[in-house]
Amino acid sequence: MPIPxxxxxxxxxxxxTGPDDIVSELASSARAxxxxxxxxxxxxxLAGCSAPGPLDFRRGIVHEAPNLVGMIEFxxxxxxxxxxxxxxxxxxxxxAMAAIGEAIAGAAVGVADFVYITVSTGLGGKIVSGGRMLxxxxxxxxxLGHFPVAFEGPACGCGSFGCAESFAAxxxxxxxxxxxxxxxxxxxxxxxxxxxxxxxxxxxxALGNLAVGLANALNPSLIVVGGSVAEHQPTHVLEPMRRAxxxxxxxxxxxxxxxxxxxxxxxxxxxxxxxxxxxRAAGRGEWFL
Length: 289
Ligand SMILES: [Zn+2]
What we know:
Blueprint: H1 19-36, E1 47-51, E2 55-56, E3 61-64, E4 72-74, H2 76-83, E5 89-93, H3 94-105, E6 114-119, E7 123-129, E8 132-133, H4 164-168, H5 170-177, H6 182-190, H7 194-218, E9 222-226, H8 228-232, H9 234-248, H10 251-256, E10 258-261, H11 268-281
The protein binds zinc ion.
């Protein structure tokens, strides 16, 4: 399937004043981008809305989202739908939307067993196994950023410690070095700063551990790695994953997996939402629902 063309876009800051304001901002942003593209709300068949999780994708309810003030057990799909005149709105986790996008029009087309990982501000993922997205008992499966990869380590935002995210996510790397942006940590490491170098080495080791675990536990044929940090620092993100799998995973799963960059780039959230909504409308969503 061809990658959809983006005909209009509208970017806004997420309100910090509660979910009601987030919904009205989402709806007015949707209306603004429709206007820009010369479409009417009545022309739209279905909308996709990606959200941070954990969430109930079947009912479109966000259980909790630490970075969105007040969004607890919040019926996001229903509320956005109501704000858009009853339009059908499909909510899913941002990493699920990205994995669906990569599966339909990106790096994982035709692949029945793959893992999607995003290494960005945070670290997240989704697992597709045997041609189905692994959802788990309550639909929250795939939080790969919170897979423990160390016996000790900095406290993680999830309440645990030693999570892959706490070592390798951009936000965490930047915080641990005392700067605003992970790119500055990589730049300092390249310039020979010992502290930056040890943080980067630790992030690489965490990603390597995660990759070996994924290869041995799931035997995917593809690990698709997206996100801004992965995009800008492939030698510090994809390479250590490849090296660790080759050195430490079982021979057969190691030989059957390829670690590749994501294909949809920075717009993966937008494209994934559209592709997922379109698949659902066409009745082809069984594998991810
Ligand atoms: Zn965690």
